[in-house]
Amino acid sequence: MRELKLKNFWKSATFGEICGGECVKNFGNPESELSALRNSVAVCDMSFVKKFVFDEAEGLDFLDSILAANILKLRYGRMVDTFLANGDGNVCAEIFAASIDDKIIVTAETLSPDAADILKNGANCKDISDDCVFISADGPSAWKVAKAIFGADIFNLPYLSVEKYLFEGSDVYLMRNGKTGEFGYQFLAPNSIAEKLAVAIMDAAKAEGGAPCGFDAHQFARLEGNFFNIYAEGESVGNPLELGLQWMIDFSKESFAGSEKIFAQRERGVKNKLVALNSNAPLQPGTKVFDGSIPAGTICVSKTCGKKHLELGLFDAKYALSGFEFSSIPNGACDVKTVSRPFILAQSLIKGMEQQ
Amino acid sequence: MAINPESLERRRKVSELLKEKLIESLDISYEPADIHEDISLIGSGLGLDSLDILEIVLCVENNFGIKMPEESAHVLRSFNTLVDFIIEEQDKKCAS
Q: Cα torsion at A86, A89, A94, A95 (round to 10°)?
């Protein structure tokens, strides 16, 4: 297992493992960590994410040949959110590719330790997963944390942008690609300055009433905010079209990894779709949901955070519409309702809209 | 209790029409079937900007005869929240 570089820094944390990488699960109270994320700012060590660097010239062509999005359209200072599929056309890694400094920086959340190894076959690919830390700050005040450290006009940095800053004599890449619905930034920095940067981020976060946050609360925030989570619905469903990830795909491309299967299914049509649910009590993954006596779908994600619980179901496409009541037992009383995502109205969305 | 098929059909029809009209208005390079009902409109997902938001407002007002609110952030969180709003407004119109 790849150990977290900042393990000693996050003293009070409970640690876990994600696909061969150590992660911070929580700091003892995911509910208050989620509250910090929704109301001020939460800092999460995401260093378990795989990180790669490519020379831009060769990297663009290579990445375009395997990733679902059109990487050739990636412009300087911008990022693209897409996925890597396996031979069966199922999602095996969520990928962010960022273009900056004649380089393409790729971060990958993978379903298995070796799921993104195909990336290493790219010309001049350098795996920097063990050389760098990756720390996120998410929340309505997250931009103030980045501004306190870099002193720049961070608020106006568009979503899916990347910028480079100097911190303690080293380059730090700041990526705005949060996955919670709030302002969200990720700091990619070399291990040599990791602790000093973590101290600066935490000091700035605490000044805004923020707190450290584990990946448990972060994952719940992804679900609340309607962001794809490869470790939840990604793992249980796999099929990118059933997951509703068509927006990550450029269907005009001739091919990419898994494209044959994905294109064929698109032609046939999608039979099942992911749908958000409100239920009276938490329902375990695998629980069937019925319209009268007719099976309508199956619970595929169930997450709790304190008293809150949210579910996603994989439903027959004809039932995968918001606003309808179902039962978790055949011909039973209605105890599950399909609802529209996102589950929450993020404060950052209101602040962002006010600025436009 | 079984779901009312008419309600299901109504939701489907509003969704399909909105998909078609948004693709047309915003020149989106997807087929209606490619647009998942929970897709985000702003940021990730369709990745629309403030100019696109104006187009969405016009699209809804012109095709569904509904006035969008001044503060529309909550309505524009996703395709589904926009459909929720359209159906609610249609129901209000019918009731009045």
A: 80
